[in-house]
Specification:
This protein has helices at residues 2-17, 27-32, 37-49, 57-66, 94-115, 159-164, 171-178, 197-201, 209-212, 216-220; strands spanning 74-76, 82-87. It is mostly helical.
């Protein structure tokens, strides 16, 4: 925790003293932020990019990304679509939000450390599309993104954050750089891939049609 707090404070101080030329951002960013917030966000991003990779590195970036919505004047729910035409009554200052988020994260760490001296959890990151080597009945909790079957665009839901981070510059990038790597549960996102339907059904994740009694002709019907 101490390392994270120290690193976050250093990043904030570096951002406050930054006077470098701003990055070029998509039009969405200038519609979604007002006053000095775009400039402060840019300076925080530059300060973070100068941080060496260490234990506190990912936490400090998480701190930054988590304040991008509270500092936006656009209508934004948590990890939902961005609505620049719908403004918000309360907009946080970027530097203040970063400092407050640092304190919240430190408080959370202190609380968890007080609960037990050391973690008894064993975390596994696994791709459900690949064969598992995990022993049966050895998992207590699985965390997934649901996914929602209809009308939830996971690419659009992160468009604000991806635009700030420089990962995309426009709507077209969502399709080329983002959606191709996502599990697309929204029916609106797969209409152009209808011809590949049965190649997807060949996935190892699909139950064998012999065991279910479901034949390809029946699916086509």
């Amino acid at each position: 925790m101490a390392q994270f707090r120290r690193r976050a404070c250093e990043v904030l101080e570096t951002a406050k003293q930054c006077d470098r030329e701003l990055y070029t951002y998509p039009a969405l960013i200038y519609k979604s932020y007002n006053k000095n917030n775009p400039e402060k966000i840019d300076y925080l991003r530059k300060a973070l990019e100068g941080v060496k990779v260490e234990t506190a590195y990912d936490l400090t970036w998480m701190n930054f990304v988590s304040i991008l919505r509270s500092t936006s004047c656009a209508g934004t729910a948590t990890w939902q679509y961005v609505l620049p035409n719908k403004g918000k009554m309360k907009v946080a200052d970027t530097f203040s939000a970063f400092q407050q988020q640092t304190e919240r994260m430190c408080e959370d760490m202190l609380y968890m450390q007080s609960c037990r001296p050391s973690s008894k959890a064993s975390l596994l990151l696994h791709d459900a599309r690949k064969k598992s080597v995990i022993r049966e009945n050895s998992i207590d909790l699985i965390i997934t993104s649901p996914p929602y079957a209809n009308n939830y665009d996971y690419g659009d839901a992160t468009r604000l954050e991806l635009s700030v981070l420089g990962e995309i510059i426009g709507w077209g990038d969502l399709q080329k750089k983002v959606r191709m790597g996502l599990v697309r549960s929204c029916s609106q996102m797969v209409s152009g891939e209808r011809k590949q339907t049965f190649s997807y059904l060949e996935s190892p994740l699909r139950q064998d049609s012999e065991s279910t009694g479901l034949k390809r002709q029946e699916i086509e019907t």
